[in-house]
């Protein structure tokens, strides 16, 4: 990092993030500044779902205090990530307010079923992942979520096979108590998917397998490791962030720099994804201390160069991508060693950026 650096400014994604056609790009923010409505349960820092715990039968449940229950017993809901399929075929998280229930994990999978309870909540261009009529139970023990489906689970199109694996895995692993997933049909464990025969292993059903995997240009996968970065997609007026898992060389020493480079390289042609990293370059090696990464960029980060405004999509993609890395909790950004940055609203940015509580939150 440059010795003449004054002070790193850190940017914050707030609950007041842009909303287009009822869909928020990023939900959540600093709870000290923005209090959630009384009828909505938001996530605590570092948690995946507010009030989530396991009951004695291994189900993920939600809980509220007696005071909260008395205040709004019938209207409470939990912001839950559902990994759905968009119009371009990408598996994308959409965060919706689902009714409170004794088994949040089971409910999350039920909301992945076509023609099920999610049908009237789907954003434009999105569809559910699991075949219509599929029934499910979920049991969680020792970090593994066992998802047991009815026979209807097998009635999917071949091209959806890997998308189903990614969707179910990423939906269930949003809960802190779930590290990996096991699939069953009518009580029998699956070792391969029933239509195209995709092998299922412990690695297959954890986040290590990635999502929307892009291996283009990679000759030898064994000499690489995955990193997940976020690009922008649009469907009409609906703008949202798409996770894409790319491969980087095992010889890469600085994982943070590798993530930034993937963002700079962009999604590639014919991917139907957008990036605000054109012309962006790192001027110094990233610095990581106490969970905070500090980055010094050139002026390419400015969405408006004359006014020196930091692009919202640039910042959101950067924070989402870097906080996918273990140990990264916040992101500080400088331009040419300086910290005088403003957002697209003309506001001076001075608060630390952490990963937003709700990604692609849907507002009704």
UniProtKB/TrEMBL annotation:
InterPro entries: GerMN. This is Sporulation protein. Residues 105-194, 256-344 form the GerMN domain. It holds the Pfam family Germane. Residues 47-75 are annotated as: Disordered. Residues 47-56 have a biased composition (Basic and acidic residues). Residues 1-22 form the signal peptide. Keywords: Signal. The keyword Signal applies. The keyword Transcription regulation does not apply.
